[in-house]
Amino acid sequence: MTGLTTGFQLSGRQAEMLAELKRYLHKTFPREHECDTSPEWSPDEEYQWCRRYNQQLFDDGWLVPHWPEKYGGGGLTPVDQMLIREEMAYRRVGICNANGLDMLGPILLQLGTEEQKERHLRKIARMEEMWCQGYSEPDGGSDLTHLRTTAIRDGEEYVVNGSKIWTGHAMHADWMILLARTDPEQKGSKGLSMLLVDLHETEGIEIHPIRSMAGEVTFCQEYFMDARVPVANLVGPEHGGWLAASALLDHERSGVGHLAKTRRQLDDLLAVVAERGGVKESTAAKLGRIIEQVEAGRAMAYSVAQIMSEGDGFPPHMPSILKVWGTETNGQLVELASEVLGLDVADYHPEGLSWNFWSAYMHSFPGRIAGGSNEIQHDIVGTRYFGISG
Ligand SMILES: Cc1cc2nc3c(=O)[nH]c(=O)nc-3n(C[C@H](O)[C@H](O)[C@H](O)COP(=O)(O)OP(=O)(O)OC[C@H]3O[C@@H](n4cnc5c(N)ncnc54)[C@H](O)[C@@H]3O)c2cc1C
To answer: pTM of this prediction?
Structure first.
């Protein structure tokens, strides 16, 4: 890590844990696999390598150390987990299956049945089953509570009809976290349910990859045509799925990933600036501003993890603040990098890596939209802060 602080004093145990992690990564993680975007979006060979390395991380106890031991964890705290993930993100270690690990995992631990926990958690963490998130629809992603996909109960099954879109990694996924309307009589956030859908075993699902403007295939659109999902795959209360769905989004929006990535890019930029003869006063002030934002963001992220470690719920507006703060800070840094590097921005590759500031600049735009656009986060912060229900 750099000279930046953690915002709190590490315990002796945490300091030793981080030192051990650094030794471990030094030994096991080759620099050529440093990955700045989601590994699921990398070429197939690279993705498969990442998946195997993530399996190794799990086997060696570094992937979900904060989960209960019963499900493959190590009984550590959310703060410990954040320290570990921050170091990994700083080293650009790709994490596969984030939909399962970081989003569905905590929801199953909180709301899943014992059968669901036993069935899914280890397979998620060992990368045996990959997950995608089926929330957004062609008629809108921001207005999620007005989604149109229905899952109507028929005995011990739900019959699903509708379409999902912008589903990242669906082409690699074995399972989907589906949000659908189970009670058409109810409106808005009422009458929705969260279902776990086996994409291989369920008939009546078509998955169509979408090629983006950048030429990459990163998203899919799925069509559900009388697809039958067992009632046993319902997570949380029937018709009360918004609780699970919004808690899952809180996990997606929290964390320290964007800030760790920004710290690494900041250090890379400082190295370039040093190579080019030092920092001009005007650039120093702009870099200083980014450092202020990174420090403030990390303090917020660790305070949320600290509250979780103590077993309390975090203030409901915090995940959205973290999401906006992390993605906007990253956007500002990569814009500054483009300014500093000028026309070299697309050609400059730090130490011969395939990653560069130009790709980081391009990826900063979808970052502001994924997980709910930043405009929508402002709305959520306001309504949650003032206790206005949707
Ligand atoms: C990289 C990436 C990965 C994604 N992965 C997934 C995934 O795995 N699963 C999934 O379900 N979805 C995924 N999405 C979709 C994402 O959640 C939606 O794109 C996002 O919620 C916005 O929805 P939309 O695209 O339908 O835009 P719209 O909702 O149509 O919004 C269009 C624009 O209008 C603005 N806007 C809309 N309503 C308001 C308002 N009330 N006030 C102010 N501004 C408003 C929005 O901010 C946005 O700029 C992903 C998106 C990206 C970019």
So the answer is: 0.95
